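Please review this pair:
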Amino acid sequence: MADLVLPKLGETVTEGTITRWFKGVGDAIAVDETLYEVSTDKVDSEVPSPMTGVITEILVPEGDTVDVGTVLAIVEVSHDAPVADAAGPAPVPVAATQQAPQPAPDPSPIVAPAHAAAGTPPERSPEDPADAGNGRLLSPVVRRLVREHNLDSATLVGTGVGGRITRSDVLDVIDELGRSGLRDGPVASASTPDAAAPSTRARPVVPAPVAAAAAAEWTDGDSRFEPFTNIRRRTGEHMVRSVSISPHALTVMEVDYENVEQVRRAHREAWRAAEGYSLTYLPFIVASVVDALGHWPRLNASVSDGGLRLHRRRNVGVAVDLNYDGLIVPVLRDADSLSVRGIARAMNELAQRARERRLAPDDISGGTFTISNNGSFGTYTTAAIINQPQVAVLSTDGVARRPVVTTDRFGNESIVVHSVGHLAMGWDHRAFDGSYAAGFLGHIKQMLEDHDWGAEL
């Protein structure tokens, strides 16, 4: 007999909900055969079997949420058949084979919520029939989409195994309602100007999740209780642990983005025509960070075994806001091998899959440095918390038109209006000191201000 356990589904994922068993007691299973579906706060995955044999007992039924490492079932192993690695084969994202092609979105959702300001429909109460699924088994992600978009699950047609409603089914209905104008508000558009980030407007228009709250029932008189979701609990636990482990320090540097701004203006129309989305500041920032990591290797590192482990690969994670419900950090792997255009395209793809909760565990693991971009909200300076076990996190805040003093080659000073913003980096004082942190930020600043970005495009 052998125990079938819930495998690790990502660096920060500690539990999952078994949403469907594809096999039952007495069924024969083979290595790599799809065994069950698990939903976490970040991804839905179909998990293949790590062994060959017969299921003799299922210990965790559909709908139960359990910790990673929990025994899900007992299997009578066939000893003459191959057995996969004990950790099990890599889970496969559910939507990877189900999601219909979607129009290319703007990469800006990687730094801003992917929804329209006035288009958020009222939330259903937890007892609403749509939330309950009318007796139909819905994964947490599908349940959330049904609730947030005010849909009736009884009217949805499922294309999954056994008629199960998949995320793709719900997204198709949402897209169709948006095209026909039947939704309670505008459908979020990837090309919405407000989604570009960081913003150069002095007064950015920031979407606010108030429509649902305003329509909610105030069951307790002057207050309403909202229990923490799993992603809120896990985020809090991770942040508290990070603050308790790392001696956080903050270094802030002002950057004149006019060099980047001039290139963006010159290439804006051609870029949109060729790529289908806006050219934002973020690809230039990421490219500068990646270059700086190569010269300041202690930033591209993690703390382990009482020391600093420096990484050869530069895998940069960029935080994505999930409609104000939480954050996820997909990773640009080997970002130093990408051009500015390649970085923008990679972020574009990750943003789309993050919005649709189609990221695989590998998409959110292996990061060596993290960027948290709040610029679309017009922030001035953000003190972000380090994503453990990394040693630093960079916040790219709002960019605005401001008067600055410039000096020509003859030493003459003049006041001009440029696009200016802050780079704020939280860092671990165990790994290096303030001079090293300032040198790293200075490298990024110099590259953004002086590099020939036009030649790269």
Notes: The chain is about 25% helix and 25% strand. The first helix runs from residue 129 to 132. The CA atoms of residues 220 and 226 lie 11 Å apart.
